[in-house]
Specification:
Two copies of one chain form a homodimer. Chain A is of the alpha/beta class and about 280 residues long. Chain A has helices at about 10-15, 40-45, 50-65, 85-90, 110, 120, 140-145, 150-170, 185-195, 205-215, 215-230, 245-260, 275-280, and strands spanning about 70-75, 100-105, 130-135, 175-180, 235-240. The first copy, chain A, has a five-stranded parallel β-sheet with strand order 2-3-1-4-5, with helices on both faces.
């Protein structure tokens, strides 16, 4: 790690939402807490993979001996913001056995027949696991608000329900990391055009992407409201400028590692006498 | 890929079980089909990650447009053979959204109250997915045979049920790759001792590992029988010498890539006019 440029400030401090936060004032091209270049960032990302893998293994190992700690990373963003790439990079060094990844799509008819948290609660991470939500219960206060699929009173009820739900998760040992990846409307346009220029990416494109762009400002207002209403101590929000993909990746990596470090993970102590076991293996 | 040492022979040919196969004659230190060194192998593994990622994305993309192809990798092995490391390495470059990983542990009471395939069938890969079974329905004809938890007639019934089950999966679009990682009993001893020497690995050790070692020859006989009975055209077995971890990793990577190549995957053709969409995005 000698020559690698590290974060100047803890990413969680640089990116955590404070009082009077205004999404409109975030610069999506900025790199809060980090002064290095793209190359520096890519190097940092690669160098920290082993640390992240070790922390995750410790988390998993603890749970085999009764530990109840767990992580839940919630990722929200507009289309093309790079959620997929981030999930790939954060998960790559981890043991798949210790990761519960869930991408929430449009709800099925059965899911819609329950309260909005019904399908979410079933996917929360088990002890020792790193849970990753690619989209989440926040869609129910974002797209639902933008398109008035729910009344203002119902949206309000959902903010309260979300805070209670997340508070309960936190109380039972879950470290929650909520992330909004923030790209500009122009950056999204550039990324949509890049998809259209590459036949290998056509399958990711749909006309609906343009339709939703028309509601950009409404989405930003819905994010601002959701962040204001659900930025709790138990489950704080982080807004990550994401026009620079490399920055968004190291920022999420830092946040996940930071959350794990706060859990003060330790390798479980052997409950056996190592010398006795060694002798038994030797003669087996 | 200029300087990288590739496989001399398709891994699927080098490792596929033929008539009169004898597990006892496999050399667990050998590297069938590959003449390169460990360094060569590690380089090959890294170089092919992008190819593997592209194939997997194509598989997933096809399914978004009605494709029903899918992959199921079944991994079986004695403890410490390196299943975990292989899963990590094969999955790392893949999009988690396109992977269904399932580690089968000892069945719960509820699972035991059904036929042995009940819990397995629920975990088969959906269209476009790469399914990975870390242990599988084969435990029900391996450990059950070794410890006589089932009668010979019942074991026989299970072989038949497995063949029918796998044939049905194959008929509905699943390319099945069955792998046994083959280590020697001495190699396992060395790996168990290494675990005991490293406090960060103590959590992976249990006395039960030694108890099962006493049945090593019975396990090999059970593997031989299972392979003989279930090595079908629809779901062929591959035995991978695994004393050299680096070799086992490239071998599995080759098998998975080979299976994907056989699926003749193509990027879905755009169902829209690219120029029209580009103009719409430009003015959005």
């Amino acid at each position: 790690m000698a020559g690698v440029v590290k974060f100047e400030q803890h990413a969680s401090e640089a990116l955590r939402i404070g009082k009077g936060f205004s999404l409109a004032k975030v610069d999506p091209d900025s790199t809060p807490g980090y002064t290095g270049s793209k190359t520096d960032g890519q190097q940092l990302l690669a160098e920290l993979d082993d640390n992240l893998a070790e922390l995750q293994e410790k988390l998993f190992a603890e749970s085999r001996f009764g530990g109840t700690k767990r992580i839940l990373l919630v990722l929200q963003a507009m289309d093309t913001a790079g959620k997929g790439g981030i999930v790939n990079h954060v998960m790559a060094p981890m043991d798949p056995q210790g990761v519960q990844f869930k991408a929430f799509k449009a709800p099925t008819d059965e899911e819609k027949s329950y309260d909005f948290l019904w399908r979410i609660q079933k996917e929360v991470p088990a002890a020792g696991m790193v849970g990753i939500f690619d989209r989440s219960h926040y869609e129910d206060v974002l797209i639902h608000k933008v398109h008035s699929w729910a009344t203002p009173a119902e949206i309000k009820r959902r903010y309260v329900a979300i805070n209670e739900f997340e508070s309960r998760l936190s109380d039972s040992g879950t470290k929650i990391v909520k992330v909004m990846l923030y790209i500009s409307k122009d950056e999204q346009k550039a990324r949509l055009l890049a998809r259209l220029d590459n036949p290998a990416k056509h399958w990711k494109y749909s006309r609906g992407d343009i339709d939703e762009r028309a509601f950009w400002d409404d989405y930003m207002a819905a994010y601002q409201a959701a962040i204001d209403e659900t930025n709790t101590a138990a489950a704080p929000w982080h807004v990550i400028p994401a026009n620079k993909k490399w920055y968004a990746r190291i920022a999420v990596q830092q946040l996940v590692m930071g959350a794990m470090s706060e859990l003060k993970l330790e390798w479980p102590k052997a409950e056996f006498d190592v010398d006795i076991e060694r002798a038994l293996v030797e003669k087996s």
